[in-house]
TrEMBL record:
It comes from the Bacteria. Residues 205-219 have a biased composition (Low complexity). One of its GO terms (biological process) is DNA integration. It comes from Streptomyces sp. SID12501. InterPro entries: Homeodomain-like_sf, Integrase_cat-core, RNaseH-like_sf, RNaseH_sf, Tc1-like_DDE_dom, Transpos_IS630-like. Residues 209-368 form the Integrase catalytic domain. Residues 198-220 are annotated as: Disordered. This is IS630 family transposase. Pfam families: DDE_3 (PF13358), HTH_29 (PF13551).
């Protein structure tokens, strides 16, 4: 006998009695770490009910509602263990079998057709109709993919970095330069930031508002649409030992433009001092014209970052701060306005500039 009660009334909980073998089964299910959470919860409800606990006590102990306890207690009293299973769901039966579903997934994970950049639900439906001859709709294919959290239209980038045998040697060399700059030498970090857009919003931004009684606060809001006013590019050099930055607006990012900037730096740095400069492998840095300039200026010594490791160049930290403080949410009425605001930021930054505290030593993790 599964239980001797009838469906409970609102005021009186249904009594539950358990045979020894059924109790053992439910105790095993309630204690299992592999059972579904819902199945374990239902078993605990019935076990507690058989021990004479009230619905309110069970609900409190299991952190569920009284209605949940009442439901499963009553289902067990009426149907026994079968009452703890989910009831049959309403709705129309499955329209397509597993073969069609597999065909949808196979299409979504295959190479896209010629001439297309990514799969669409329409294209997947057409592909399936051609393989299993099922009249699959684009919306149904989309539901199948959504159930599997498969997004064939979404593409994320990744980089296969080529093997660089001297990666760690070059990285350690730059880190040592930052951590222990040679006495009497000038250490510079140089790079360009190109195609910075000067954009103005079509409507003024709205400031943040604090919370009012009964209403939440609201963050600042910025118009989505904007007007383009051209772009500007910068070349910048940071003195690693002081943190000060010198910038210049450039029209084109070429080797000639880059070496012209180096000429300015060379003229302002005290003669006789060695200049150690950190550079990435950008085209303007590795061009024949630039290499010739460096060969003709023997006090300049380049420390090259490894390929795809420009993050070792400290000037990137300055560019990141410029983006956060000025560019990302900035509103610029013209290209000149953009340049003026970037100059203002750099001038104010240099007034309180400090060197970055570089702690990374480029030591790869060693296996124990």
């Amino acid at each position: 006998m599964w239980g001797n009660g009838q469906v409970n009334s609102v005021m009186r909980a249904v009594p539950v009695e358990l045979a020894a073998d059924v109790r053992a089964l439910l105790e095993q299910r309630a204690a299992s770490t592999k059972a579904a959470v819902r199945d374990a919860m239902r078993a605990r409800v019935v076990l507690a009910a058989s021990d004479g606990m009230s619905n309110a006590e069970i609900a409190h102990d299991l952190s569920v509602t009284i209605n949940t306890v009442r439901k499963w207690r009553g289902r067990y009293a009426e149907l026994g263990p079968a009452g703890l299973l989910d009831a049959a769901r309403s709705g129309r039966p499955r329209q397509y079998g597993d073969l069609v579903r597999i065909a949808v997934v196979a299409a979504a994970t295959a190479e896209v057709p010629d001439g297309a950049a990514t799969w669409t639900h329409v294209a997947i439906a057409e592909q399936v109709r051609g393989t299993v001859f099922a009249p699959v709709s684009a919306s149904w294919a989309g539901r199948v993919l959504a159930d599997l959290d498969l997004k064939p239209h979404k593409v994320t980038g990744w980089l296969t970095r080529r093997d660089t045998p001297d990666f760690w040697e070059r990285a350690r060399d730059i880190c040592e330069l930052y951590r222990n700059p040679p006495a009497g030498a000038v250490v510079l970090s140089i790079d360009e930031k190109t195609a910075i857009a000067a954009r103005s919003r079509k409507h003024p931004a709205q400031p943040a508002t604090p919370a009012a009684p009964g209403q939440p606060g609201r963050p600042a809001r910025q118009e989505f649409e904007y007007v383009r006013h051209g772009t500007a590019s910068l070349v910048a050099a940071m003195d690693v030992t002081s943190g000060e930055v010198l910038t210049e607006v450039i029209d084109r990012n070429t080797a000639a433009t880059f070496t012209a900037f180096l000429d300015q730096l060379d003229a302002t740095i005290e003669p006789g001092k060695n200049i150690l400069v950190v550079l990435d492998n950008g085209s303007s840095h590795t061009a024949r014209h630039t290499k010739k300039w460096l060969a003709n200026h023997p006090r300049w010594h380049v420390h090259w970052t490894p390929p795809h490791a420009s993050w070792l160049n400290q000037i990137e930290l300055v560019f990141s701060a410029l983006t956060r403080r000025v560019l990302r949410h900035g509103d610029f009425t013209s290209r000149d306005d953009l340049i003026a605001k970037m100059d203002d930021y750099m001038i104010k930054r240099n007034e309180t500039a400090r060197p970055f505290k570089w702690t990374y030593a480029a030591s790869p993790l060693q296996e124990a």
